[in-house]
C-alpha cells in the first residue's frame, strides 16, 4: 500500500507542477490544478470501486470455470515471469479485507475447500481489475472544457491520472492470473489424492 500511495502522490505532484508551469488554462489560479488532480484521483478510485461492486454482485457460476480471462496461456505465464511478478508481487496491495478472504498467500494448500474459495476469489479479482482498466478512461469525459469545444485538461490531467490508475489496477490482475495457474494445479492434485484415498477405502 505504501508503494502505491507514493506512486499516486508523486504522479499527482508531477501532473500539478507541469500544469502549473505550462498549462495556460488557469494561469493566475495555479491552485486550481491541485483541486482538479485531486478530484480526478478521487473519481478514479470511485470508478474502480463501482466496477468492483458490480462484479462482486455477479453469480459465482460465471467464475467457476478455468477459461477465458481467467486462464493464462504459456506465453502469458512466460511474460509474467519475464516482468518478475514473483519479485514485486508483495509490494502490490491485496484488498482481501473487503471480502473477508486474504489472497496474500496460500495458508492451507491441502484443503480443497479453501483452495476452491481462493480460486473463486482470485477469479473475481481478475475480472474486477481487468474491467477496471478500460473504465479508468471514463475520466476523460470529466473535462468540462471538452463540451465547449476547447478540450484542455483531458490531455494534461484526466489522461495522466487515467493512465497511472490503469497501470496500478492491472498489476494485481497479473499477480492473480500468475497465481491462479498454480492454484488450479494444487486443486487438481488434491482432488486426485482424494480420489485415490476413496478408492483405497473402498478396497478395504
Your description of this structure?
The chain contains 6 helices and no strands. With 204 residues, it is mostly helical.
Which labels suit this protein?
6 helices; mainly alpha; 204 residues; elongated
List the uncertain runs: none
Structural class: mainly alpha
Quaternary structure state of the chains depicted: single chain
Largest sheet: none
Whole-number mean pLDDT: 85
Using only CA atoms, what is the Rg?
Answer: 22 Å
In total, how many beta strands? Answer: 0
Secondary-structure blueprint of this entry?
Blueprint (H helix, E strand, L loop, with lengths): L1 H21 L8 H26 L17 H9 L2 H4 L23 H25 L16 H51 L1
Short structural summary:
The chain is 67% helix and 0% strand.
